[in-house]
């Protein structure tokens, strides 16, 4: 039985990944920060539906380096990591505070990289293992009003390219998915007018659904994707990158 860590499992994309991977037969470590009740409900449903698999809740603030150390200690087997956690700061760079910049850097870059570093021995003891970052199209094209978010998402993509070369001989693949606009709670910041304007730029004329991101994650963890590494795959509905 394969074990996967999904960070941000209480978020829309993270939850969709957990459900998709559980359906595929994975046992799942479900990381969350604040939304304990949602995780308890999710695990209760999964345990009932898949009684032969294991499901665990791991609480941690992934903006804190100490929490990364704890997560590593709480896992006994690990075959894959899906980084689906994160948040953003929606304001001009000139208005972004040093604390906000540090928070985004630690949350999206430093601590995920540190987690990869700490988990490498667990991952590479298997014949095949995988890491997938849910990055963002803004890591490829940038965005005004989310300059720091775009920067850290771009850093994730650079890390994927570099680390994939370092661990390829260990049969550890690492890739990133760069979604465009996804229909999640994170996008409640947008006004109706902003959403309508965005849809005009998307040829498919709709937002992505979390389960569509999860389906691509599931594929990247499959044997069919064993030759894909160091790649960033846009999932944008035709939105130009």
UniProtKB/TrEMBL annotation:
Family statement drawn from the similarity comment of this UniProt entry? Belongs to the short-chain dehydrogenases/reductases (SDR) family.
SUPFAM superfamilies registered for this protein in UniProt: NAD(P)-binding Rossmann-fold domains
Q: Which domain of life is it from?
A: Bacteria
The record's annotation in Pfam families points to: adh_short_C2
Q: Answer yes or no on keyword Transport.
A: no
**Known InterPro entries for this protein?**
NAD(P)-bd_dom_sf, SDR, SDR_fam
| Name of the protein in question | 3-oxoacyl-[acyl-carrier-protein] reductase FabG
UniProt entry tagged with the keyword Cell inner membrane: no
Supply the EC number(s): 1.1.1.100
Q: Keyword set for this entry?
A: Oxidoreductase
Q: Which Gene3D superfamilies match?
A: NAD(P)-binding Rossmann-like Domain
Report a single Gene Ontology molecular function. 3-oxoacyl-[acyl-carrier-protein] reductase (NADPH) activity
Tell me what gene encodes this.
fabG_1
The species this protein belongs to is Vagococcus luciliae
């Amino acid at each position: 039985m394969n074990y996967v860590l999904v960070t941000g499992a209480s978020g829309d994309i993270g939850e969709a990944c957990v459900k998709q991977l559980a359906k595929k037969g994975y046992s799942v470590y479900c990381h969350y920060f604040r939304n304990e009740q949602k995780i308890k409900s999710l695990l209760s449903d999964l345990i009932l539906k898949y009684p032969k698999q294991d499901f665990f809740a791991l609480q941690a603030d992934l903006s804190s380096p100490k929490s990364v150390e704890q997560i590593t200690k709480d896992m006994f087997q690990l075959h894959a990591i899906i980084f689906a956690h994160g948040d953003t700061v929606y304001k001009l760079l000139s208005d972004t505070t040093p604390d906000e910049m540090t928070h985004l850097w630690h949350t999206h870059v430093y601590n995920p990289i540190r987690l990869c570093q700490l988990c490498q021995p667990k991952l590479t003891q298997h014949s095949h293992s995988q890491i997938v970052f849910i990055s963002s199209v803004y890591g490829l094209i940038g965005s005004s009003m989310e300059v720091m978010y775009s920067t850290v998402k771009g850093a994730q993509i650079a890390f994927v390219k570099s680390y994939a070369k370092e661990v390829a001989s260990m049969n550890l693949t690492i890739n990133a998915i760069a979604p465009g606009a996804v229909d999640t709670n994170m996008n409640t910041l947008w006004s109706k007018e902003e959403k309508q304007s965005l849809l005009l730029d998307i040829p498919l004329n709709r937002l992505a659904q979390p389960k569509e991101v999860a389906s691509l994650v599931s594929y990247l963890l499959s044997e069919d994707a064993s030759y894909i590494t160091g790649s960033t795959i846009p999932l944008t509905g035709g939105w130009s990158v």
